Each structure stands twice: as C-alpha cells, then as structure tokens.
Amino acid sequence: MKNRKSLIGIIVIAILTVVLIQNPLSNQYLAKLKQGTVYIYADQSDLYNQIELAAKQYAKQPQDAKVDKIWKAIPGYNGLKVDVKASYNNMKKDHKYDKNKLIFTQIPPKVHLKDLPASPIYKGNPEKPMVSFLINVAWGNEYLPKMLETLKKHNIHATFFLEGRWTQQNPELAKMIVEDGNEIGNHSFSHPDMKILTADRIRQELIKTNQVIEATTGKKVKWFAPPSGSYRDEVVDIADSMDMGTIMWSVDTVDWQKPSPNIIINRVMTKVHPGALILMHPTDSTAKALEHLILEIKKKEYRIGTVTKLMDEERIIKK
Predict the structure, then answer these.
(1) Residue 96 in contact with residue 119, Cβ under 8 Å?
(2) Domain spanning 118-311 has what CATH number?
(3) Residue 82 CB: number of other CB atoms within 10 A?
(4) What is the C-alpha to C-alpha distance for residues 67 and 44, in angstroms, rounded to an integer?
(5) Distances 161 to 98, 178, 228, 307 between C-alpha atoms, Å
(6) Are 227 and 205 in contact (CB under 8 A)?
(7) What would the pLDDT profile of 39-86 be if each residue is shown by its tens digit?
(8) Under DSSP, is residue 41 helix (H, G, I), strand (E, B) or coil?
(9) Interhelix angle for 84-91 vs 45-58, to 10°?
(10) CA 244 to CA 194: how far, in whole Å?
(11) How many Å apart are CA 202 and CA 194, to the nearest integer?
C-alpha cells in the first residue's frame, strides 16, 4: 500500500512539473532570466509597461545613404531604439514614468555617405530637423563682422566657402571666421566657371585654395562649393579624389541681387525644410536679415549647424 501511495505521489509531482515547465508564463519568466531582465515588483509593473510602450512609439529604423535621381547624394540617418532596461533603472527610484529619463540607443545605417559614388549634395537627410547656412565669400568684407557677431550672439556656426584669392588678401578675416567656431570650405581660387575648365585647371583651382586656407587658418577642407553652382561630373569626381564633397543648395537667398531684408526672410522661410542647405553671401541685406532668419528657423524647431553636422548620421531626438 505504501509503495502504491509513493508511486501516485511521484506521478502527481511529475505531472505538476510538466505543467509548470510548459506554462507560457513560466517560459516567459525563464526567457527573461536568460536575458538578464530587471526584476519588477508588482507596484512598478505599470512603470515598466509605460517604458515598453514608449519604446514602440520612439522606435525608428535607420536610413541608408543613397543617390536620388533628383536630389543626388543624400546622407543616411541613424535609427533609434529605447533601452528599456536602462530606462527602467533610471526611473525606478522615483516610481514614476519620466520621458526625459528615457535612455536611447542609435542604430547606424549600413550605407554611409562615403560609400556612395561621387555625387553633388543639395540637401541633408529630409527627416533631420536641421539646416545649414552656406556663406560664399569672395567679396563683401564690410558685412562679414556683423554677420559673425550675429552668429556668435545666437551660438550658431555656419560653413563659409572661401575663395582662395580672397583668403590670401584677407587672412585676418579668414582667421576671424575660424576663431568663432565656423567651418571653412573651398570656393575655388579665382571664381571661374568650373564647368568649362580642363581637368588640370580644376585640380589647380582646388589644390591651391586648400593650400592657402590651411596655411592661413590651419584647417583642412572637406567641402567644395562650385562658384555660381556651375559644375560637370568631372568636377565632382576630382573634388572627391581630394576627399571633398561637392555642396550645392536647396534654398537660395539670391542676396547678390540686393533685395530688401524682408524679401530675403520671406524667400527663405517659405522654402526652408528639414535638411535645407541655405545659400547666402556677405551682403548688407543678408547681414540685416540674419538675426530674424535665425529666430524664425528656431521657431520651426530646426537646429542650425555646419554642413558637417547636417551631413552626419546622428539622429536628433525630440521627446
């Protein structure tokens, strides 16, 4: 009799063991143990659930850099995910959800701008809420100090494309641009129509300008802006062989026509978009319009940064 009872007990224990192992909740528990998941007390389960919901809301897939048929080279953009475990640890002390304490991880794309064939760039990634001021400098010395003062006042850095000849003649102004934290680009040496130059002449224009800029400011150049936006594919290829990207624009102030500051502001603000490359020059109208432009662009919640900042893949996170 005792043996029979013992046998029945063993059978019951075996059945209970199988049921527990095959229970979906048990499987989830074991899976979470393997993942090193945070243990959550019952009164904090809502917090963890809120973080998981936020993770779904903020999740973004990375975007590969590509060559568009119309806009040519477009940089990639990082994807985004919430680190649920780290975010939970960041909030559990206060026992409440706080979106400002979410911990994010950025996921890089598989294809980067440097992986693309040589191609001009007209704008940044259309999902990046940032724009860049491109300031081409071959004249307009009298307006540069005011523009630099305005940029500095608002902690804004632009990319100044300097003509080599102008840099030779105005080394102090070139240094002033760099000292304020702005980026320097190549705008040719003598402002020719690059589209019609021989390959040798193109190289001379680019090499000489880079040499003058580096000797004057100590900065190496990574971007080239063709004078008047005139180029052919060979120009882009030669710049690429010198490790320079060719930069065009998607918004033009047309400030060389000397319009009123209000016209410049309206012209930019009706066309500005995420990833915009905004072309301007050191003119009286632009110097007067610049502060208003900065304030209006910031109202749209766009950041303003250098070409390099706009072209990088870092995702701007809006919580």
Answers:
(1) no
(2) 3.20.20.370
(3) 20
(4) 48
(5) 43, 12, 12, 11
(6) no
(7) 444 456 899 999 999 999 999 999 999 999 999 999 999 999 999 999
(8) coil
(9) 130
(10) 15
(11) 7
CA dihedral 148, 268, 121, 209 (to 10 degrees): -30
Nearest to 162 by CA among 183, 143, 180: 183
pLDDT for res 95: 86
| Surface-to-core class of residue 40, CB atoms within 10 Å of its CB (0-12 exposed, 13-18 middle, 19+ buried) | middle
The CA distance from 160 to 157, in Å, is 9
Beta bridge partners of 132: 277
Q: What is the pLDDT of residue 38?
A: 46
Using DSSP's 3-state secondary structure scheme, residue 292 falls into: helix
Q: pLDDT higher for 18 or 257?
A: 257
Residue 162's DSSP bridge partners are 137, 186
What is the pLDDT of the chain when averaged over all its residues? 90
Q: If you average pLDDT over residues 98-106, what whole number do you get? A: 96
pLDDT for 81: 97
CB neighbours (10 Å) of residue 253? 26
**In contact, 158 and 151? CB cutoff 8 Å:** yes
- What pLDDT digit, counting tens, does each position of 170-216 carry? 999 999 999 999 999 999 999 999 999 999 999 999 999 999 999 99
Domain ranges for the chain: 42-117, 118-311
Q: Which residue did the predictor score with more confidence, 25 or 154?
A: 154
CB-based contacts of 129: which residues, under 8 Å, 6+ apart?
A: 274, 301, 302, 303, 316, 318
Question: How long is the chain?
Answer: 319
Beta strand 277-280 with 303-304: parallel, antiparallel or unpaired?
A: unpaired
Percent helix / strand / coil, the chain, rounded to 5 = 50, 15, 35
- Check if the beta carbon of residue 205 is closer than 8 Å to that of residue 186: no
Q: What is the DSSP letter of 143?
A: G
- The owner of tokens 């540069």 is 144
148 Cβ contact list (under 8 Å, min separation 6): 176, 177, 180, 182
d(CA 55, CA 103) in angstroms, rounded, equals 10
* Secondary structure letter of residue 224 according to DSSP: E
